[in-house]
Amino acid sequence: MSHMTNPLATVEQLYGRSTLNALPQDLQDTIFLAMQSLTQAGGLLLRLPQSVTAQANVVLARYWATISWPFVDEFSDISAASLFLVAKLSSHPATPRDLCNVYAYLLSPLSPLFRPSSDPSLSSKPDKTLYYLSEAGYNDTYARVLALESRILCALSFDTHVALPHGLAVTYLKALDFLDVSPPARLAQRVVAYLNTALLSPQLLYLTHQPSALAVAAIYNAAKDLDAKMPECAWWEVFDVDREELGFLVVGMRSVEGAVRAGREEVSAELREGNMITRAGIETEMRKRGMVLGNGPSSGGAAAQLTEEDILMRSLDERADQMDS
Amino acid sequence: MASKSRWADTEEDAELVAKQKREKEEKKRLKAEKARKAAEEEQKRIAAAQAQQAQAEQQSPQSLNEPPTKRRRLTPDQDGGDKTEQKGGKDSEGGGSTGESSAKLLRFEAPTWKPTASVENYDKLNDIEEGTYGWVARAKDLRSGKVVALKRLKLDESTGGGGARAGLPETGLREIQILKDCSHRNIVGLHEVVINEAAATSQNANRKEPIEAVFLVLEFVEHDLKSILEDMAEPFLASEVKTILRQLAEGVAYLHAHWILHRDLKTSNLLLNNRGQLKIADFGMARYVGDPAPPKLTQLVVTLWYRSPELLLGASTYDASVDMWSVGCIFGELLAREPLLQGRNEVDALSKIFELCGVPTEETWPGFRRLPNARSLRLPSASTAPAALTSSMIRAKFPLLTAAGCQLLNSLLSLDPRNRPAAADMLRHEYFRQDPKPKHEAMFPTFPSKAGQERRRRKETPNAPGRGQKAPASVDFSGIFAGREREERGGGFSLRMI
Predict the structure, then answer these.
(1) Interface pTM (ipTM) of the complex?
(2) Inter-chain contact A10–B170, Cβ cutoff 8 Å?
(3) Out of B113, B210, B258, whose CB is closest to A147?
(4) Whole-angstrom Cα distance, residue B169 to residue A146?
(5) Above 50 in pLDDT, residue A315?
(6) Is the per-residue pLDDT at A308 higher than 90?
(7) Catalytic residue at B141?
(8) Do both A178 and A256 map to the same domain?
(9) Chain segment A228-263, per-residue pLDDT in tens
(10) Owning domain of residue A178
(11) Where are the alpha helices (H) located in B309-468, listed in sequence order?
(12) Does B293 lie at the interface with A, CB-CB under 8 angstroms?
């Protein structure tokens, strides 16, 4: 059965993301979206098959569900480490040097990933020194990736198994004779597009639903979009998905596009200034909003401003938390 | 029964809203109640029919475009969940089928993930084995009192300290992943993975603390087949060989059915407990494959004595049949009480194989000449070689084996991988149905435990090739039959079977 099922997040893991001391939800969503897009871009540039990159996305999402503010690691490193880990276990390993080079490029001012195509820095002649990664820089990046790799594994109790819904969806399409829709590839393409988009969903759909449900919902959405004729009975039950679950996923998958658009317009433009979101950026944003900052582990910034008393109080709090747990 | 009545309640709610349907539903409900008294089987069928009809009546294609009325509960408080459920009941006039679907849906059990625990939960009892395989110890779980085997994952020397270069080895991670995915009585069970104390406690405190040690907590099994074979005074009975072989085939069939190649089957990796159960262990070489098998698999797998001829000849595309060759070698070893093909190196291993199974010809193994290392292979040509050279010696080597057993061994040790049976086919072989029947596991003899008390002896078997080791660019097999040809010109190939 393990080929068709995934471990799912517990209610506490999902709920923990929206408790009072956590980051505001919109910032969380922005960070998550940026990390997932970065992972996809990294997978593309490393020429990894989408099956590997998608698994890295899911592993990243699982790790994301276990960590909370203040974050110990930089978001781009989390993305790189998930991709490195999953690729290493697949039949398409990425060499550390390639990985670090790709991420150096994606985080450089020349990367078109988080910039509108009209950005002037992209049109000018590329200055290759901007994404040149020296030997020392490579060693630093790689050491961070390795440290994170083991942290991810620890957080997931070494379970890196990911079952993707893509293959199931094709099987379901065949079972439903949906592939007869002309042209036959269009529907399947649409289904796969929905499944890949769902990887970015701030609702963490891959952590709350089994692949069979995701596949059915993607087929439903795709068939609706293309006006393909669906069976009139409750066909989703054949694939062990109830109507309620399907309804939730159908709406969830359709809402990703809106969420991405909204995130891009509102928060991210000023937050990342065309770059990948960093912890420092989040700290600045929080201060701008006048919110109390957690004791970010990064040097300088907020941590430096804390008085001795604050630090003492915090350590007491931490001890109390430890005793509670 | 409990769930039945709940469906019935929601049905009633829906009926209050849909007046037209109520009478009809009421009748059917009564009818269903009657039937419930009659027989449970009968009642289920009627309920199903009823729900189907209701669904057909109320099917409205637009309903799914509306926001869902009921969601998977994502907050821990109970009250919130109840409220939404009530709301769901009220809203359900459009697509009333929410509560009525009686189709039995398969619910997947979904495990979760939680931080890795510390090795301090286990108390070491004694070392079992130390050496090239890494470190294995017998330990007691302090929480449950159960005895387990702790296997320390071999981290490269550089990964232990701060200057990590390759990260956690993928072989170890694959082993963990595959064992986690497997659940079969003939495959050693993985309880959990634990790490050193400092790394385990630092996870919660959001501090960075490198992992220094990773331990696999495995089911404890008393013996391994290798040391039993070495120490036993009398060989296994024919019935006992069948029991062991059948369990091995069952385990391998499970692995292959789940797209896993073990790639290092040998007697020291087969464990046997005191209840006669065999467990396949050590998945350090194992990996998932697809069908067709991915190209460019490493040929550096399987311990030399159990390595199939196509691997020796450098095939980079291979499938489950490499495991079946190893099964054949183990079968022979169970009968002979010593490894069947103890080659000193690749060349020697291959010549031992050809000695036992005959020299391949274009008929017995079509296309073998195209394998990378076959070019340097100089074999007596098919037309001139005597039949004795190209035919198998297995029948002669195991005179006590029945004809069916011999046929099975012969097919497992086919030079052409396509002729080896799949593990599932092997289980249906006549050999297992013939007298003597496989001995019942409970009747299996017990053996003095080594792993229990003292240190296990170091193995003399060679090891599986190391990870990252380079495959020899081209092995020179030209020497194999160099002297043989002369021999042949003399009095023919001498049989050394007697």
Answers:
(1) 0.79
(2) no
(3) B210
(4) 11
(5) yes
(6) no
(7) no
(8) yes
(9) 878 888 888 888 898 999 999 999 999 998 888 877
(10) 166-260
(11) 309-312, 321-336, 346-357, 387-390, 394-397, 403-412, 423-427
(12) no
